Amino acid sequence: MVVAALVVTLTSGPVERELALAQLADDPRLTLGAPVRDHLPVVATTDDAAAGVALVEGLSALSAVARVDVLSIEFEVA
Amino acid sequence: MDRRDFLKSTALATATAAATRLALGQEPVAAAPRTTDDDVTWDKAPCRFCGTGCHVQVGTRGGKVVAIAGDQKAEVNKGLLCVKGYHVGLALYGADRLTRPLLRKDGKLVPIAWDQALDIVVDRVLANPAGFAIYGSGQWTIPEGYAAQKLIKGGLANNQIDPNARLCMASAVTGFLSTYGVDEPAGCYDDLDRADVVVCWGNNPAEMHPVLFSRLVDRRARGDKLVLIDLTTRRTRTSAFADRTIFFQPQGDLAIANGIANLLLERGTWDRPFVEKFCNFRQTTDPLTLDGRPMTFDEYRQAMSAYTPARVAELAGVSPDDLSYLADLFGRRDLRITSLWCMGMNQHTQGTAINDLVHGVHLLSGHFGKPGDAPTSLTGQPSACGTVREVGTLAHGLPGGLVVTKAEHRTEAEGHWNLPPGRINPKPGYHTVEMWRRFSTPSDQGGDIDTIWVQVTNPARSLPNVDALFYPSRKLPGKFLIVSDVYPTATAMAADLVLPSAMWVEKNGMFGNSERRTQQWFKMVAPPGEARDDCWQTIAVARRLHDRGHPGMKDKDGKFLFNIVDETDRPVPVWDWRRYYDVNVDAQLFEEYRRFSRHKHKDLAPYAEYVKARGLRWPVVEQPDHTWRETKFRFVRGDDPYATKDDVQFYHSVTKDDRALIWFHPHQPPPEVPDRDYPMLLCTGRVIEHWHTGTITMRIPQLQRAMPQAYCEIHRADAAALGVADGEVVTIESRRGRVDLPVWLDGRGQPPPGQVFVPFFDESIVINLVTLENYDPLSKQPDYKKCAVRIRRRASP
What we know:
The complex is a heterodimer.
Chain A: E1 2-10, H1 14-26, E2 30-32, E3 39-46, H2 49-61, E4 65-74
Chain B: H1 3-24, E1 41-46, E2 55-61, E3 64-70, E4 102-105, E5 108-111, H2 114-127, E6 132-136, H3 142-156, E7 161-163, H4 170-180, H5 190-194, E8 197-201, H6 205-208, H7 210-221, E9 227-232, H8 237-241, E10 244-247, H9 253-267, H10 272-278, E11 279-283, E12 293-294, H11 297-304, H12 309-316, H13 320-330, E13 337-341, H14 343-346, H15 351-364, E14 374-377, H16 384-390, H17 407-416, H18 432-439, E15 451-455, H19 459-462, H20 466-469, E16 480-485, H21 490-493, E17 497-500, E18 509-512, E19 517-521, H22 534-547, H23 585-593, H24 607-612, E20 616-617, E21 621-622, E22 628-629, E23 660-664, E24 680-685, H25 701-706, E25 712-713, H26 716-722, E26 729-733, E27 738-744, E28 755-759, E29 787-793
Parallel strand pairs in B: 6-7, 6-15, 8-9, 8-13, 9-10, 11-23, 13-14, 15-16, 16-17, 24-28, 25-27
Antiparallel strand pairs in B: 1-2, 2-3, 4-5, 4-17, 11-12, 18-19, 19-20, 21-22, 24-29, 26-27, 26-29
């Protein structure tokens, strides 16, 4: 299991933004915090780091997402 | 609450704190928790990778690094990290760490004992002390570099030491020296928070310095008006964020800088009061020198007048409109302008000249000395500034900005090291390209370097034209290559002797980042197997030389060169690995080193101050209340304690009158231009996922998967002309060598027609077989950014 702290920075277009927020809220891997202006605190929980990387890449590709910052990642070393 | 919920709640607190800070530009009300689990121990360290100098919090449990977080208390990164940073903990755990010394026997590397390995090194030194060299790195910690420097300059006294930083920032050094008389940027990262305009000169910080770039993007997100200008030879990720992307032809940057200066002069928008008070003018001489030849303002204006917009368009491919736009910005006094650059300007056969000219544009326009107004070079390695530029581990350098060629500097260094007068050799050693050329030349044909000890770098992949500079040595009798490293790099695999090293938080360390910030960390976990600190390796070799009678290993009182003592001042035999951590060797070496730092006003604080801080920017000066104060803006009265005479004081002025130099340098063509046989220009560089030659990042599965191999970017029109499709493998060939690699069309970077870009991180695709070793005549830094190549579809096997 990997737990990562993210900040998702949203663009300011209201329609796309609402759509993106709904998509993020529907994703069971994500726990959303309270947005602070354009910045949304997010916790991503995935089975492994590779899935986490793929998830971050997927978030970055959403049209209403300007950028994704990864703040911390909890990983296990074999 | 179970473990998963606990981790999620602490992660959410971290993310909320960062979001608050990003949104509001302020510290969160409550600091993020430092622990995510009761049995994880956290401590601070600077990131192992680039020169930005982000601080991370390192979580350890059971003798392993198990978690990484951005350090909320760090001014540099304010809790953020890039994709490499948050995986830095995994750097220690590649499957193939070197854990035992290895000696080449009958063509194979076989394990040997440390005792034997050290004796072999010592045998090589004693067999020919003059022909023994150390090739180091901007990844050395400060104490590691200092120990190697002292061994070579103060002990063996042959000055044969040079670092890989010669390949990445030597032209920035000569640019600062020739302009201000002293090295390293006057400004700092705070300028990024205050600038109205940021000009990236051939620089792609969105990938190379992403955390710094995020400061710019975040300002915009908060509503700040910030103009970002991308001066570039190809479209990059930085271009995507730029307000204006201005493409120029490779080597056209000198013409652009001269063209801006010409328009400032022609329009009368230069800053006459600043220039008349704080600047002199200089022009190039033949042979070139850092002092140049004086010129009057009228001569300078006359020389610059040749760089009309039409001529700049011809030389650089920049439109008169774009040039006028740049000159308009620099001509405005109401704006604060920061220039950023890195390898694009430094890896350049005119590297010193373009550095001088960009400083000159800032000085001529008065965009200097106010927060946000700064010409700032960035570095690529975590301690290129701290260990190379400040410790002076270059062939001509001594610590603290002193040089071996000046008698008074040698005398001062001999005093600090308690050496007999005359010990330090006044003749500089060989710079990097020359060192390796001589190592790859037969001994009876002038190849007078016969042993090189490589520490913390990978010259078999990072030197230019490696088939000329590196590989011939591997077949020459009498040449012996020693490599200290953590992984079996290409260099290690070509070595005669391999010494396994500890890395990053497996040892104590100190780095110095791009903004004069000195950083410290403590050992947190043990290195694997028999891997040991590089600093210990150097001291252990020195001690064996001492024991076998080498006279240079004693000071003038007969004490060992590295006289490490306990609290009662009794020597501690730290050359014995079992005793190495009985005392803090780093702290003692640093306290000795920092005595050098006052000569050029690069004052460092006591070691203990760095233990408390997330780095301090020099000069760090003790205050009347015995606290230590860092300096953000150098040469500026009110912040720099040594600037006392006027608002700005260049107190190490080349002309000894507290003035900086504004230079004129003419445009010159690159050493190799496209022709019928080799019609395209190759530029090499980096990607965000990987660092240097990828020896660490390619062993981090997440980063390796994200960018698994090198590629070549070419323009779609060139691909069509060559008949190659996206992903197809092509051969890139120069007059020196060739490589096969896949094409990436319309990818992350997009060069214009006629140009090719290849990243150099992939050890399996050796692009430096293709590059050329021509270098800047002053800095001796090679040009990796332009050489003539041809591309063809790969022939069928």
